[in-house]
């Protein structure tokens, strides 16, 4: 298996766990689980993109740059959403409060749909 195939497999499994957690009844503990899984999935997503882009003969070093190139390659359809996910990931890494957690939870649930689309697009390319 190539590095990209391994990353895709890991992201597929992680995104399934995220969707599983997102379907649970909302409680503070479930919210926190969704946020943690979102953070992990986002990291894997941009690593998948970075490796995929590298396999295309291009280069990207940062999540923001990889997301831009992924949009150009039609791997993601809504770049603004993905930039919002990046911002949410950055916020949870540096701060924690109840209001912010609730907002990030909502983004994480949306992300679970968009990451599934990303995997479909990569596997179909």
Description:
The structure is a single chain. With 125 residues, the protein is an all-alpha fold. It has one domain (3-124): Four Helix Bundle (Hemerythrin (Met), subunit A), CATH 1.20.120. 81% of the residues lie in helices and 0% in strands. The protein has five helices and no strands. The mean pLDDT is 94.
Topology diagram in text:
Blueprint lengths: L2 H20 L5 H28 L7 H10 L6 H16 L3 H27 L1
Brief overview:
The protein has 125 residues and is an all-alpha fold. It has five helices and no strands. The chain has a single domain (3-124), classed as Nucleotidyltransferases  domain 2 (Four Helix Bundle (Hemerythrin (Met), subunit A)).
Specify the CATH class: Mainly Alpha
Number of helices: 5
Radius of gyration: 14 Å
- How many strand units? 0
Oligomeric composition of the shown chains: single chain
Q: Which residues sit in consecutive blocks of at least 5 with pLDDT less than 50?
A: none
What is the CATH architecture term? Up-down Bundle
What string gives the helices and strands in order? HHHHH
CATH topology: Four Helix Bundle (Hemerythrin (Met), subunit A)
> What is the percent of helical residues?
over 70%
| Category from helices, strands and their pairing | mainly alpha
State the CATH superfamily name.
Answer: Nucleotidyltransferases  domain 2
- Averaged pLDDT: 94
How many separate structural domains? Answer: 1
Q: What would the principal axes of the Cα set say about the shape? A: globular
């Amino acid at each position: 298996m190539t590095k990209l195939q391994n990353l895709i497999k890991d992201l597929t499994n992680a995104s399934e766990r995220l969707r599983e957690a997102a379907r649970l009844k909302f409680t503070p503990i479930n919210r926190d689980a969704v946020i943690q899984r979102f953070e992990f999935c986002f990291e894997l997503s941009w690593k998948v993109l970075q490796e995929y882009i590298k396999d295309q003969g291009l280069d990207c070093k940062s999540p923001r740059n990889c997301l831009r190139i992924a949009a150009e390659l039609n791997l993601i359809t809504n770049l603004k959403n993905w930039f919002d996910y990046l911002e949410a990931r950055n916020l949870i890494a540096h701060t924690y409060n109840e209001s912010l957690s609730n907002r990030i939870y909502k983004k994480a649930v949306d992300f679970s749909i968009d990451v599934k689309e990303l995997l479909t697009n990569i596997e179909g390319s």
